[in-house]
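We were asked to recover a plausible sequence for a given structure. The inputs and outputs are reproduced exactly as logged, with field labels preserved.

PROBLEM: sequence recovery
POSITIONS: 294
GIVEN STRUCTURE:
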């Protein structure tokens, strides 16, 4: 994905945090802090851009996009949306703090086709100068938390959020509003067993939402919905739970170091395992090992 800024100018401001180094696919998330007034213009971008204000004090903005001009104050929680390939100009007065979320246009077309049966050739996302959207704000804050924790939840979690965000954009901001299919009954037992066996066999490896959905030949959004309907957990929550269960077994039954166990269970470090283990069990791996060895 390109990293050209939509708002404001990356030439004068590097992000405080960026997902570019974390290998996230189809979505780029960056946190910015502008210390002074400025302006920027963008003429061609392959990504749809969402800007979520994190500013503690409202900032006065002038925006020009889609042949329209808009002037107003932007405060914490305000959102602007700029479709891919739409020329954009902005001028801001004073300090600014915001989160920029960029979604690849091709990814949005794929979600439109696979999840909502939309014609990708006729897909048009509408611009928003300043709006409030609790769901986008909530997803944005979850993504920011992942940035701050260096992707603690893993790529399966990010892929799930990206799919939810893409479907929401298509339902709320596309020129033609699609109807989200209603899926009842969850996954058949045979398909559920197929997925659970795959997860169990790949606990030490990267488990991707696309791979799980491909097992059943359905869209990622559709799969996530049916999996949660069947198990009561999101794919990410289930995967994390199974990794912790595997770690418990290894802590009880082997003398391997906690780092070795972390890697065998799909965690990237001792601290990564420890943090997730403590969240689910209220104990550190060392304390758990000690308590079960008596």
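RECOVERED SEQUENCE:
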């Amino acid at each position: 994905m390109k990293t050209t800024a939509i708002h404001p100018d990356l030439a004068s401001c590097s992000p405080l945090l960026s997902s570019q180094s974390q290998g996230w696919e189809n979505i780029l998330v960056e946190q910015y802090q502008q210390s002074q007034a400025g302006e920027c213009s963008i003429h061609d971008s392959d990504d749809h851009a969402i800007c979520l204000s994190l500013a503690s004090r409202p900032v006065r903005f002038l925006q020009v996009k889609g042949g329209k001009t808009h002037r107003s104050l932007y405060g914490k929680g305000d959102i602007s949306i700029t479709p891919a390939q739409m020329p954009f100009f902005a001028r801001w007065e004073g300090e600014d703090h915001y989160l920029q979320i960029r979604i690849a246009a091709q990814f949005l077309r794929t979600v439109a086709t696979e999840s909502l049966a939309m014609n990708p050739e006729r897909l048009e996302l509408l611009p928003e100068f300043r709006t409030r959207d609790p769901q986008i704000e909530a997803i944005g804050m979850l993504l920011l938390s992942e940035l701050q924790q260096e992707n603690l939840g893993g790529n399966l979690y990010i892929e799930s959020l990206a799919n939810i965000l893409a479907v929401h954009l298509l339902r709320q901001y596309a020129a033609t509003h699609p109807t989200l299919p209603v899926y009842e009954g969850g996954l058949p037992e045979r398909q559920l067993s197929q997925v659970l066996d795959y997860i169990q066999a790949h606990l030490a490896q990267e488990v991707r939402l696309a791979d799980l959905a491909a097992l059943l030949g359905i869209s990622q959004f559709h799969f996530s919905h049916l999996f949660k309907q069947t198990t009561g957990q999101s794919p990410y929550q289930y995967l994390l739970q199974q990794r912790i269960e595997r770690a418990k077994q290894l802590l009880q039954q082997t003398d391997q170091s906690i780092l070795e166990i972390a890697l065998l269970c799909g965690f990237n470090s001792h601290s990564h395992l420890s943090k997730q283990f403590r969240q689910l069990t209220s104990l550190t791996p060392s304390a758990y090992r000690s308590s079960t060895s008596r």
